[in-house]
């Protein structure tokens, strides 16, 4: 039985999608980051970086969502590209991990959560997030899936963030990204995707982004005030 530490944010949701697609038995363990549960000693023993998702599979612990996707795909032999596409799979999986995810996260922070408006930071991360999604869209112009001829873990990783595009970039986010929208819709229509998104609704998470939540999620604020 896999123990799956998660919340409803994009990175855990893409791992939930794999678990549901593969019908792997797992025990979900909610980690409420707005209450600071990611810093509990028991969780830091699983992921010293204090972030979700993470899994424990017997004697194996894996953290970072894209590492988990690759681990699970190799464990099950499912949702991997053909061997000739191994380089492309690793390249696009890391593109999501090191580009799409971080720039999207910073775009969200400066758009929604920064305590003061910082035009330079806002504009830079909005630009870079949209640029990365544009790279994905152009790649998908002549193909159905991100790598090879079948649905796989890179599509799951891409969907995890793409489903949040209006929150990341604003209500007109899909303008100019028709190929990415097609991929998003294809994945979102899968029953496993609906189950992955609904997983968070089985638990109670703190809804407010209040001073307590900001103190847990944005530790630099406490450091700068000291």
TrEMBL record:
<dbReference type="InterPro" id="IPR004046">
    <property type="entry name" value="GST_C"/>
</dbReference>
<feature type="domain" description="GST C-terminal">
    <location>
        <begin position="82"/>
        <end position="208"/>
    </location>
</feature>
<comment type="similarity">
    <text>Belongs to the GST superfamily.</text>
</comment>
<dbReference type="Pfam" id="PF00043">
    <property type="entry name" value="GST_C"/>
</dbReference>
<dbReference type="InterPro" id="IPR036249">
    <property type="entry name" value="Thioredoxin-like_sf"/>
</dbReference>
<protein>
    <submittedName>
        <fullName>Disulfide-bond oxidoreductase YfcG</fullName>
    </submittedName>
</protein>
<dbReference type="InterPro" id="IPR040079">
    <property type="entry name" value="Glutathione_S-Trfase"/>
</dbReference>
<dbReference type="Pfam" id="PF02798">
    <property type="entry name" value="GST_N"/>
</dbReference>
<dbReference type="InterPro" id="IPR010987">
    <property type="entry name" value="Glutathione-S-Trfase_C-like"/>
</dbReference>
<dbReference type="InterPro" id="IPR004045">
    <property type="entry name" value="Glutathione_S-Trfase_N"/>
</dbReference>
<dbReference type="InterPro" id="IPR036282">
    <property type="entry name" value="Glutathione-S-Trfase_C_sf"/>
</dbReference>
<feature type="domain" description="GST N-terminal">
    <location>
        <begin position="1"/>
        <end position="80"/>
    </location>
</feature>
